[in-house]
Design goal:
Radius of gyration: 17 Å
Largest sheet: 2 strands, antiparallel
Helix content: 55-70%
Strand content: 5-15%
Structural class: mainly alpha
Number of helices: 7
Order of helices and strands: HHHHEEHHH
Number of strands: 2
Strand order of the largest sheet: 1-2
Length: 171
């Protein structure tokens, strides 16, 4: 029975991920880690290229290309970082508007999966998801990676709080 449940959960996970990716591609006209970069930068802590690279799991050259594209598109600005050797990434007003649209689209893409459930079932499901997530043993970097597309305006009582503001994300 547990293998069947695990298999079904895997299918739901892929279906949700596919819908999120499709929605992000429709909104941004880019895929890959572009949506996550906008969301993470939009948390407002001014990540460095290296912090963002680690959260998104990109190579250094891949991160540089992504940031260069976001800057060229007028979505991200580079500012002086806390450490004079690093830069701090921040969204422009256009980037913030696109991030808001992306997060709204993400939730819209996920809601149909919850529609067949009653209010009571959704509440139970939310409790089970919270329990599952809070039982995962992760580093802060892993939690940041898991929450890289989270809408922090709707998430209360986070089961895996990530310290995006930390100067050094532990591996």
């Amino acid at each position: 029975m547990i293998d069947r449940t695990a298999n079904l959960l895997g299918v739901v996970g892929l279906a949700v991920a596919d819908r999120i990716e499709e929605t992000a591609r429709d909104i941004l006209r880019h895929s890959g880690e572009t949506p996550a970069a906008l969301v993470v930068i939009g948390y407002g802590f001014g990540p460095s290229n290296d912090q963002l690279r680690r959260i998104l799991g990109l190579s250094h050259p891949g991160m540089v290309r992504l940031i260069d594209r976001l800057v060229a598109d007028g979505l991200v600005e580079r500012h002086q970082g806390r450490d004079k050797r690093a830069i701090a990434l921040h969204l422009t007003s256009s980037g913030q508007a696109l991030r808001k649209k992306l997060l709204k689209g993400r939730l819209t893409a996920i809601r149909p999966f919850l529609a067949p459930l009653s209010d009571a079932e959704r509440e139970t499901f939310a409790s089970l998801l919270h329990k599952m997530l809070s039982s995962i043993e992760t580093s802060d970097l892993e939690r940041c990676t898991l929450c890289r597309l989270c809408d922090d305006s709707v998430c209360s009582d986070c089961p895996i709080p990530a310290d995006f503001r930390g100067h050094q994300l532990s591996a």
